[in-house]
Amino acid sequence: MILKIVMTLMALVFIILAIAAFTKRKYTIVREIIVNKPKQKVFDYISHFKNQPEYSKWLLLDPNTKIDFSGTDGEPGFTLLFDSKNKKSGKGEQEIKKVIQGERVEYELRFLEPFQFVANGYTSTEATTENQTRVKWVYNSGMKYPMNILLLFMDMEKIIGTDAEETLRSMKKQIETKY
């Protein structure tokens, strides 16, 4: 009887590991919004990470989030550090990796708590008219094997995408009302 239970559990573990081997490990979330301001004004705002506490859904979740900065804002190496008791915000840092002036800011997001993982992405600006700018937010992440099996049950498009949409709407409001 015990041997049957052990064999069944081993078979179940093998099946789960086999499924995980063929499950995607990476995902990309993309969101866009039109901001009614000239491209350079929009780029100047989004390329400075010190502005993120004004609009980032994740940084605004916990009013007690500790936020610190390191480096020269708007330049590669600048890092926004955050520490929150809210598990959705957690603890981590976001570093500017590359800036293509007036076009794109690439970043790396390193989560330290409650889970450790690294994501990367970029925010870009594109003039649609003289006074309208398309802001594109791209987030790339994933899960290592065998944890990637969780991606079969988690809708990352909805989980992260919904918060990203709220962040973009808040960013748009900040830019359009302040600048």
Alpha-carbon distance between the two ends? 73 Å
Unreliable stretches, pLDDT < 50, 5 or more residues?
Answer: none
Number of helices: 4
Helix and strand run: HEHHEEEEEEH
The level 1 CATH classification is Alpha Beta
Mean pLDDT: 92
Number of strands: 7
**Quaternary state of the chains:** single chain
Adjacency order of strands in the biggest sheet: 1-7-6-5-4-3-2
Structural class: alpha+beta
Query: Looking at CATH, which topology would you report?
Result: Alpha-D-Glucose-1,6-Bisphosphate, Chain A, domain 4
Number of domains: 1
CATH superfamily: START domain
User: Can you summarize the main beta sheet?
Assistant: 7 strands, antiparallel
* Beta-strand fraction estimate: 35-45%
Q: What share of residues is helical?
A: 25-40%
Alpha carbon gyration radius = 20 Å
Shape: elongated
**In the CATH hierarchy, what is the architecture at level 2?**
2-Layer Sandwich
Describe this structure in words.
This protein has 179 residues and is of the alpha+beta class. The protein has one domain (2-178): Alpha-D-Glucose-1,6-Bisphosphate, Chain A, domain 4, CATH 3.30.530. The protein has helices at 2-21, 39-46, 57-60, 156-178, and strands at 26-35, 66-70, 79-83, 91-100, 104-113, 117-129, 132-142. A hairpin with a 2-residue loop joins strand 6 and strand 7 (132-142).
Keywords, separated by commas or semicolons:
Alpha-D-Glucose-1,6-Bisphosphate, Chain A, domain 4; seven-stranded antiparallel beta sheet; single chain; 4 helices; alpha+beta; 179 residues
